[in-house]
Amino acid sequence: MALSLITFEQIKSPISEAYRTLRTNVQFTGVDSKTKKIMVTSSGPREGKSTTIANLAVSIAQSGKTVLVIDADMRNPTQHKLFGLSNSEGLSMCLVQDQGCQPYINDTAVPNVSVLTGGPIPPNPAELVGSKRMKNLIQEVSEQFDVVLIDTPPIIAVTDAAIIAQEVDGVILVLASGEVNKEFAQRAKEQLDKVGAKILGAVLNKADMRTSDYYYYYYYHGSDDSSKKPKRK
């Protein structure tokens, strides 16, 4: 099991508790309507979106729900590394072949967590994620699992995330503390707004736990009341 899955390896750590807080906040967003299909993206590369989605999946599974992680970042697939899986087959092959995705879904060492890896890197990822087959796949797996989490490329870099954002119930934006450019973060939100995405909130990742400002690794702040300052943990 990859060390990045701290919610599985160190369940009582402060970071794992922070992921449980994120899980709880996500669950509260579904009070009036179901939030089953969730996309996770970032404004730029190396902000920690893939690690965030993997640990969120583990945390949700620990609450007794079945979770499927779809690695739709076919330009730079990462989920297979985090869960210790092969990437010889996966989403890219599922979308180009005329058959269901079930043969490509992998069980993991984490109970209740399954992963559809990215698969071999295709020459046309945007075309694949924008296909009718991708839309049908998301709908199909959402009927099989309690929660579907979709890892996508950064929203600013390519169109993939904007396409998928229109097919999910909500979007989480991951931003790296002390690294993300404020203008990029704003552009990322604007990109999501343009396609009518429901932004569930933002995760501030890579916060320094040694400072007095952050006891946890990140905070979760819902987008519905952005005028309020995030609470310090």
Overview of the molecule:
- The protein has 233 residues and is an alpha/beta fold.
- It has a single domain (6-225), classed as Rossmann fold.
- It has nine helices and eight strands.
- The chain has an eight-stranded mixed sheet, with helices on both faces.
- Strand 3 and strand 4 form a beta hairpin.
- Helix 2 packs across helix 3.
- The longest helix is centred in the N-terminal third of the chain and has 15 residues, at 14-28.
- The chain is globular, with a radius of gyration of 16 Å.
- The chain starts with 5 loop residues before the first helix and ends in an 11-residue tail after the last strand.
Quick structural summary:
The chain has one domain: Rossmann fold, CATH 3.40.50. 33% of the residues lie in helices and 17% in strands. It is built from 9 helices and 8 strands.
Overall mean pLDDT = 85
Order of helices and strands: HHEHEHHEEHHEHEHEE
Class in CATH?
Alpha Beta
CATH superfamily: P-loop containing nucleotide triphosphate hydrolases
Strand content: 15-25%
The radius of gyration is 16 Å
Shape: globular
How many separate helices?
Answer: 9
Structural category:
alpha/beta
What topology, given as strand order, has the largest sheet? 3-4-2-5-1-6-7-8
CATH level-3 fold name? Rossmann fold
Runs in which pLDDT lies below 50 for 5 or more consecutive residues are: 211-233
